[in-house]
Known about the structure:
By secondary structure, this protein is mainly α.
Amino acid sequence: xxxxxxxxxxxxxxxxxxxxxxxxxxxxxxxxxxxxxxxxxxxxxxxxxxxxxxxxxxxxxxxxxxxxxxxxxxxxxxxxxxxxxxxxxxxxxxxxxxxxxxxxxxxxxxxxxxxxxxxxxxxxxxxxxxxxxxxxxxxxxxxxxxxxxxxxxxxxxxxxxxxxxxxxxxxxxxxxxxxxxxxxxxxxxxxxxxxxxxxxxxxx
Length: 204
């Protein structure tokens, strides 16, 4: 009985260490972002900082993955790197966390290649929808306190003439942005998840 409790304790400690390491990696990746000015306004940049959370969720379970997504945003906030007073970090957590949870949850139900593919496809759609809702109700109202919402819409309209208001901005800018970002992370996950899972599960 004592041995079982000790093993359980070691497992918990080991998982916390893995979550901490992957959170730190995710935090570092937040500083590596690429703008795509031909498609999106300058303030929207592609990064893969949710990839460690995604790989961690696949290997360690959905809750671990969401914890990694939360902690890397918390690190961004407490280190004073936030430019939105935590609003951007909260939205990033909600959007990225929805993707990580969906993929890793589906994989726990079907732990094979088809399971990860189904999870990634569903995750892409979930992240796109959550991203649209989060930006419409959280991020764009926040930006409107810094600059007129019309200025944000004009930035989008300069790229796509179909953008005339907040809703069309979300449809033509935010939705494609999150769709592209989730797709990139999915493509990176496919060749990495098996070896990452083996490495993380090997370390006790």
